[in-house]
Amino acid sequence: MTNKMKFDHWTLNLDNSNLAWLCFDKHESSANVLSSPVLKEFAAIIEHLELNLPSGLIIYSGKQNGFIMGADIKEFTKINEEKKAYALIRQGQKVLDALEDLACPTLSVINGYTLGGGLELAMACNYRIAIKSDRPIIGLPEVQLGLHPGFGGTVRAVKIAGVRAAMKLMLTGKPIRVNVAHKNGLIDRLCTDEEWQNQARSMIKAKPKQATAPVVEKILNLFFLRGFIVKTLIKQVSSKANKNHYPAPYAMIDLWKQHGASSVTGYRAEARSMAKLICGSTSRNLIRVFFLQNKLKSQFTASEININNIHVIGAGIMGGDIASWCALKGFNVTLQDRSSEDIAPALKRAEKLFTKKIRNKSDLDKTRMRLSEDLDGSGIPKADLIIEAIYENLEAKKELYKKLELNMKPTAILATNTSSILLEDLRADLMQPKKFIGLHFFNPVSQLPLVEIISCSDTDTNTLQRGFNFVKKISKSPLLCKSSEGFIVNRILSPYMAEAMHLSEDGMASIDIDKIAVNFGMPMGPVELADTVGIDVALNVSKVLGKAFNRPIPKRLIDMVKNNELGKKSGAGFYTWTVDGATKPKATPSETARIPHNAEDRLILPMLNEAIACLEEGIVNDSDMLDIGVIFGTGFAPFRGGPIQYAKERGLEEILSAFKELEAEHGSRFKAHPGWQNLK
């Protein structure tokens, strides 16, 4: 190649046939992202090519992990004014407009993750080829950050792929595989890693017709039909996202309704809408959550975990699902319980998980072989990690540990999935207490991303690090917690669920209590949550935390357990449960009349108060870790940023005033923790 031009982030080469090869390799970065300096250089390169027109332009990545991961989100967090946000977005749009208008054929080469602004840049090219991959790597995930595409994506995606495919891609935010993108027209040609250069040359030379939406999709884009389709889209979105909580998907639908992917008006409208979202609290909090998730995973540096074989004791809902998840993630797992009848339901759920997650038959068979029933505990001597997941009873667990220590190898880690018992009490009789840790998973294991890693003040650092990196290896987010009754998640949930019982005793219907919580932004209400985790589990946690913090145990929970009303697992709880879900009785007029004006505060403020207590006691390192842990562990409204962030946004003065009012009305359970005065 000749005529090489080197920039900080781009390298332009012109070959002997006057074909331009533009390599994007962002300086001092593991991934390509479109920052302002990157776009500024790109604009200069396009301007140069306009004056020195090549026979074609091929844009490819210098990174092995993908084409472009998207825009630089950090830049969004620095903007507070819609006017400035609009200017920044329009700058990016104009650069891609110039690429689209370049008077020679242009092509982008997708070699891996191509997300957000990366896909928007690719769509501004005439053609797109992708290296074959089975992973979902192509997407417009901005909605997950409370935003929508801003560099022309809301217009170009519809033009190229059509209304239905484009809206699904944008509204769900879920990436798709290259074969699906090829079917939708987003990718023109699939190729191997060895042939992409020849394929790119041939397309530039042949100049085939550019991909556009099929005729039927163009008809659906007509003004008089858009209104009907919008109703369907809103119905789909509203079942998953409250407009007041998550405005971005509704903004996308409105953009299409008003402008129909018009190149004349669509881009400016997209920029105005995006600017408004960038400056809103939802996107700011969701972006914060995104960065906190990365912070959560970086508490320890990656190292060799030396864990291949795992033995799980207890094949109940938690133990069985922990075992199947570990097998899914590549570990050899033996599952122990008292009988085959006890293990059978866990293996049945495992089969359902495996067939849902694995498409390839060979991989499916290998995964099945990694999980085996182990009634006599023959897997214990070979295990590198032993996870105890039996019922919440201190003496039963300690008795089990005595037997385990006689058979487990010295290098193995012994961990408990206890949800509330102090580790100091559990490890009291162990020969190697410093190598004992807590690995507290949450139900359902396959869906909830958090694992609390529990340590004592003298826990062996190497053991803790191995446990931490094991959690990352199974694609979970680890939260390091100090041993304390209930740790973080259950401790914060406990007063929330207890207050739901108080509201019920005051005459509120269960369905109304849950509705208050869901309207706040919780994924499900406290009553349904109690039924889902199990009334017996809720009672056990209440007993442990009640004793630790001098709280009364809800009598109704005691009565329900006596009557085998255990919630979802028994079919009867606060609601009636079948395979189709919960049957929830409607509230009577008298119950509706008993809804107090401060019902939301009665549910939410106790969680905030307990969060402050956890910070003051050092159960978790800082408020950021607490916020992300509570979001991942309880589903606390992500758009609110976590309990501490929500309190800060609402204001300390207003929070304390609400506590004072509730304490006067309901007593000491609403007394504000002294630690509120230290909140910064």
Describe this structure in words.
- The protein is an alpha/beta fold and 680 residues long.
- The protein is built from 29 helices and 20 strands.
- The strands form four sheets. The protein has an eight-stranded mixed beta sheet, sandwiched between helices. It has a seven-stranded mixed beta sheet with strand order 1-2-3-4-6-8-10, with helices on both faces. The chain has a three-stranded parallel beta sheet with strand order 5-7-9.
- Helix 17 (394-407) links the parallel strand 14 and strand 15 (413-416).
Structure classification: alpha/beta
Rg for CA atoms: 28 Å
Overall helicity: 40-55%
**Overall average residue pLDDT:** 94
Question: How many strand elements?
Answer: 20
Strand content: 5-15%
Shape: globular
Contiguous uncertain segments of 5+ residues? none
**Biggest beta-sheet profile:** 8 strands, mixed
Report how far apart the termini are. Answer: 58 Å
Quick summary:
The protein is an alpha/beta fold and 680 residues long. Strand 2 and strand 3 form a beta hairpin.
Give descriptors for this structure.
single chain, 680 residues, 8-stranded mixed beta sheet, 7-stranded mixed beta sheet
